[in-house]
Task: structure prediction
Amino acid sequence: MKRKVTYKERLRKKRSDRIMAKRKKIIKVTLVAILILTTFIFGISLLIYNMIPALELRYSTLKIEAGSDFNEYSMIKKIKAGNKKEVKIDLGGLNTNVPGKYKLTYTFKDIVRSMEINVKDTKPPVIECYKEYEVEQYGTVTMAMLVAAVHDVSPTNITFSNGLSEYTFNEEGVENLEIIATDSYGNTTTEVVSVNVVGEDVMAPEIHGADEITVPINEEFDIMKGVTVTDDKDDAPVLTADIEKLDTSVPREVTITYTATDKSGNISYVKRRVTISRTVANYNNTDYEITWDTTGIISQPYLIAVNKDWNTVTVYTKDEYDNYTVPYKVCLCSIGDSTPTGYFITLERYRWKALYENSYGQYATRITGHILFHSVPYYSEEPSDLEYDEFNLLGTPASLGCVRMCVEDVKWIYDNCPKGFPCVIYNDPSSPGPMGKPEAIKIDVTNFAKRGWDPTDPDSENPWLN
Result:
């Protein structure tokens, strides 16, 4: 039979349980406090540790190849309480291109560390040489002829395999020469050059193309163009002339001397006569001197020349050299005191153009400023409203500065000469031009039915055409 627990026993049990629970709580709080204190002490210790300067290098001794790159900061393995840039480094005169031992000193705050760099040259020189070379029999070659460059950080001695610095060839044929480069640390490289020994060169070069020539005045002339030189043993003989540039501004005869020299020193000379002539236009077997720039413009087939003294317009087309020297067409015109002289590149073009004081012109092309090619003036933009009295002045000075022409001629310019064609306005009292001066067409001012029309106007309503 189970014994019954008395009240006093239960009371003692409860008291014992409360005591045990309190002890456990005290132990738990104590353990937590110990853990916090331990962590705190560790953190403080670590902080103090990190605040103490320290410097550690990767090596005490390091070997590097001469000529290699070296970064002194990469030698720092560990640093505390600072960074690498705070470290003062004494390189001890380190030169990575000069073999030797160098002491490097690293100072960080009160800490001093050192290491030794041993720069060694173990690589052989690199020789850049011409793999093939040609020389005459009994000729001598030196290192400078065969070797372009030698690369090494140390002083280098270069010789042929026989120990000499030059070599003489007594027999024709191909001979392979060994070139040996040795630096001051005993590193050696050998290269082979194939030398082709040919018979002695006694023939001078031949100059071609230096024939007599006539050059138009003011035309640029390249004295070397078309002149060549050949040699039986030298693929690239040197060709020179006794002048650098020919002045073509003055008509005269000039002698140019060309000199050719081959690699064996053989020399030849050729004299060339160049005649600088005035530019002429030939018409009906008669030469006419041209005093302006005749250089052709690629996109323009014609140049138009206006002679103020004769009131003529001569159209030139291109010759075989692409210059404007071939007379093509001649027309009458009327110029004025204000007509400028000079060389012009034409500008805008107009089917009808308002002129001075309510007058109008057909087929106008601007030469420069307010100066134009245009027809004889009209009172309105009607082809039947011509100022006929002005038409009858063609071939004489009558304009305010423009170049007046009959409709047929000015329309030809409008239709056949693109914008930007060259125009020359000049004075020459001695001649109207190579094609002469055309006879003027006159209007009968008493013919009321027709006088308002330009007789050359191709308009289908022009009564002069019926």
